[in-house]
Each structure stands twice: as structure tokens, then as C-alpha cells.
């Protein structure tokens, strides 16, 4: 086994050397400083440059503050350059007008730590967030407000929603945390998967979503606003995709807006009685490679670390353990090979950065299940290729530019120079690990 592992590593190093791409892949952890964020039809534009964004969801309310530095450090080591989090209304405003941004609820501190670890932040304010969180994040006292109807063109709901969202923005502005102020926050999400309920409210729902978009755009954030699963996102708001296979399922409708993925589900949350939820590292990597091959430029893993639903914070029947099969498990331990396989993927995609962000794309279908996507900039000798075999059962080979390439079933090979395979989504170099438990003496004594 030891010889096989070393052989794989040696082959990867040789491949990188052969194309002049062997670089120090250890991610720098210098504090990130942004001078602004905007977008064009290709990607987010951060500090005046197009960027690929590799993000992971970590909810500050689902881990203890003393865990945050280690979680963020491991996320950065895993190749991420951004962290995403929801904002939890019922945590921050448990009573009308009484706000709590301290201790485990210290959102600003969590964001500052992400910045110190060299990562941007995607702030998903909602304030309805779902997230398998109690009451979807909405405070229970909202139910006592006269004439209240949630998430529609309802004046009481809009009044309280705008008050809370403005409060969050004020808290971020205090510490200059938006990219427009030199901070790490590059995106601001309003509402959450509204398409799921839009038909219920009909015209009043349409009015509400336009109101929410305009309200968010008029806040003093200076960063782009996003709406997930909202293809008809109004005006300058960017629609984004949630799901397991956005590279196959998402159909962009705005050529002037980038293709962003706000939730790639790394497993699935569990309710009591469910078996452990599994999603293989290979399938997850395939979905990411597919998305970037098809013009996507931002991915966010939901979750990268799921953490713990403390007390009664989880939604009905949802287990205390949340997304334990994420790249970092409930306790912040590496979940291998998922963490390591994705880390290798992120580094490989960075080698493709120039082609993905500035190259001209072309597609070549080779039979029923095989596809080649190429990004080229001939004047700068830039060429990136993605060779895909979508058949879930049958391996195969394809000829690309005079060379035969073997493609395992359900896999994508990435060629940063259109010649050398640096990464295949089915070939895992990361070591496997297993988590074990030792029963505490107190527990043993209690069971005697």
C-alpha cells in the first residue's frame, strides 16, 4: 500500500513539473484586504480582477467560538478562499428590539477571523434562512404581531424584516467589514429559495421579491446582492443555484451575470431515525469539475463544517449532529478522503484560472456520454481542457488532439495545459480515515 501511495504522488508531481506548474500550493494565510467587489458576465470582480471563488459554509451558531480559529484554518488549508454563513434572526433578536451579537452570536468576530485567515465572506442574511433551523430563523415573536403574514407583500413583515436587515448592515459597517470598505464580505444574500413558495403568494409574492431586492440594493453595503434559486432575480441582483449537480441542472438566463453556486450539498442533514447520509468524495468532485467546465466561477459547499444544533435550535426532528459527513465533521476533524480530494481539486482548478476567466470556450461532444470542454487564449498560449465521461457504469477512452485519454466511469479529467492530466475526479490520492469514540468514565459509571 505504501508503494502505491508514493507512486501516485510521484506521478502527480511529475505531471506538474512537465507543464511548468509545480508551485507552492500551500495557501497563503495573510489577512485578506478587498478594495471592492462587482461582477461581469464571467465572474465576480474582486479588487478589479476576475476571481474564482471556492467557498464553504460554516455557521458560527453551530460551533463554539474557541473552535472558529481551527475551523477557518483548516478551511483555508483545504483550498478555500471564502466562507459562507447565514445570519440567524431569532438568535440575534430574541425579543423585539433587543439584539445580541455577543459570544457565540458574535458575527463580526467570526467574519474578522475569516479575514485573518485570508478568506472572503459570503453573508447570507435572509432573514428567512431555512437551514434546518428552528422556525427557519424567524423569531417566534413575529407571530404575535397583528396582521402578520410571513414572506409576502405584507407591511408588518416587511417593516420588521427591513429593521433587522438594516441592523445587521449597521453591525458590519461598524467594523468596516464589507469589501467596499476594505473588509472581506464580497456578497450579500437577501431572502432564500423563494421560488419554492412564490406560487403560493402569486402577484403579492412577486411584489415582495422586488421590494426585497430593492431594499437590499439600497443598503450601504457596496457589494453585489444575490438571491438563491431565484431565476427572475430583479435588476442587478444575481440569481444563484442550490443543489447537488448545478453543472447539469442550472440554466442561466442572464448573460450579464456570472454563474454562481451557493449550495453544493456535501451530504444531507438527518432527521431522527435516518441512516447516516453519504455522498462520496468522487461524486462531489465530479459535480464541482462539471460546474467549472460549464462556465461556473463560484462554488460554495453546504456544509463544509456542519457542527451542532445546540439546545432546541434545530428544526423539527432534525438531529443534533448537522452535516457530519461534510469535509470537516461535527467536531472539526478532517473527513477523509473528502477534505483532501477537494483540496487537490481546488489547487488544480487554480492552475486553470486564466483559461477559465479569460479564455474562449468550446464544446465537443464525443458519443453519447463523452464530452470535451476547452478554454483557450491562443495569443497567450493558454489552453485548459475538461474531458468528461458521464456514464455511471462504463469506463472508456477518448482521443483528444492526437492523444488517447482513459476516463473512468462518472469522471472528469482536468488538463491545465490541454495535454497533461493533473486531476481525475475518480482517482483519489487523499488518505482515508476513520473516527472512533472512547466512552467517558462518567458515562460508563452512569450506565452501571
TrEMBL record:
- Any one biological process term the GO annotation gives: carbohydrate metabolic process
InterPro entries cross-referenced by the UniProt entry: GH, GHD, Gly_Hdrlase_35_cat, Glyco_hydro_35_CS, Glycoside_Hdrlase_35
Where the record annotates domain Beta-galactosidase beta-sandwich, the positions are 372-428
MF terms in GO: beta-galactosidase activity
Grouped into one coarse class, the protein's main location is secreted
Q: Catalyzes what?
A: Hydrolysis of terminal non-reducing beta-D-galactose residues in beta-D-galactosides
Root EC class: hydrolase
Query: Where does the Glycoside hydrolase 35 catalytic domain lie?
Result: 43-348
The Enzyme Commission number assigned here is 3.2.1.23
User: Where is this chain's protein located in or outside the cell?
Assistant: Secreted, Extracellular space, Apoplast
**Protein name from the UniProt record:** beta-galactosidase
Species source reads Rhynchospora pubera
